[in-house]
Amino acid sequence: MIVCIDKTAIDFVGKYTIQPVSYSCAIFPGKVRRKPEAWGHLGYIHDMTDFLTDKRAPRGQNLRDFHFQLNAIFKELSSIHEKNGIEMELSFFGKTKQVNVHVPICFIIGDCEGSDKLCGKYGTHSTLSSRISRVCNCPARLADDPKIKCVWN
Fold first, then answer.
1. Mean pLDDT within 17-22
2. CA-to-CA distance for 124 and 132, rounded, in angstroms?
């Protein structure tokens, strides 16, 4: 299974967002996975600050909310793994065999901000951040300068 988590705006100005948690089968070839019908949705992660009256969540609360929602979304898949897979009968070449099917998550696709949250990293993704990337020391305010020299870390 391949999972994709990517935030998208649900209004015209981008104030309100939602993050679909989508999946596709890793055994599908790439040209099949590029089609929308090859993907399903496991659930949606909501920005819980939309529900706060003062819009100021305690530091790290968004990250905890994100992981709490992921836990709920993956709960059924997790229980399948805890029960040693899904029991099924498979027939090949006229022979039927009872098997336990496991559905591992091969990898999760996401952007930098989403991947940081997934890994539990609290960070900033604005022009006020000290660098544009973990591997380059270029300040965000100079990222549009084509002459900037990046020192790789």
1. 92
2. 10
